[in-house]
Amino acid sequence: MASYCFAVLALCVAQTLCITIESVPGVDGEGAILTELESTVSLVCRSNRSEGERAELVWLRNGATVALRQENRKGQSRVCVTPVIHQDNGATFTCRLASNASVEASVTLNVTYPPDLSGSEDVWVEYESPLVLHCDAFANPPVTVWWTLNGSALDLFGGGFTVTDDGFSSRLSANKAEKSKHEGLYRCTVDSPVYGVKSKDFLVIVTEKTVKFPLMPIIAGVVVVCLTALFAILSRWEKIVKCCK
Ligand SMILES: *[C@@H]1O[C@H](CO)[C@@H](O)[C@H](O)[C@H]1NC(C)=O
Ligand SMILES: *[C@@H]1O[C@H](CO)[C@@H](O)[C@H](O)[C@H]1NC(C)=O
Ligand SMILES: *[C@@H]1O[C@H](CO)[C@@H](O)[C@H](O)[C@H]1NC(C)=O
Prior knowledge:
The protein is an alpha+beta fold. Helices cover 18% and strands 41% of the residues. It has four helices and 17 strands. The chain is elongated. 22% of the residues are buried. One 2-acetamido-2-deoxy-beta-D-glucopyranose (NAG) binds next to loops.
């Protein structure tokens, strides 16, 4: 458990009024609490005033007031973040005196999470169709994704590949799949300082181009043939009817 008297440390010495935040897990030197998705962070704020004059405390999350029960406000106040979610990354929790907003202490959450990369996928792509592969790259600390084909670095120019990374996922694409250039084992890999090396495989198979059945021309053709036959019968019918009169 670490005690933190953020920004008001000098104030504490000079004056008797002070606020401290204790947290589990503890705070690092920069006022950050290192935690992971799904875990729990417990924060306790205390004012150092004597029991008799227990100061009222207020909690804020990113500047917005956290609703607290009445009995959780005087002299000591506890908030719990559980389970920790993606959106808690970088969130700042501030505890301050209700009576004087300049007496406050803050901590920031640093939520680490790995990219969702594992396993292997088979991908069939038709000859001359676009080849597109995606790998998750959403992680804290941020990661760089690199791609290999058959164990070697991608020949971006030779293979006509484009790789884009928007911080959420890495996308590898090639406009027209060719067996000789594009078939093989693709792997995207990241090396996270916290979670180590993670990767995902794609076994890409380029298939024959399927002949698209030209449905519309056939329907049109059939309709024309039927109508012609119908008219032929109708004109014939008129003649037959006429001759019978
Ligand atoms: C609030 O606290 C600061 C620091 O302790 C002090 O300088 C200031 O006078 C206080 N303001 C009020 C309105 O009490
Ligand atoms: C969060 O913690 C990770 C792991 O220690 C570190 O690499 C990263 O720089 C920290 N991020 C921030 C914003 O402090
Ligand atoms: C990758 O390896 C496979 C199997 O050895 C081979 O069939 C394929 O042509 C190779 N792909 C490239 C682009 O060299």
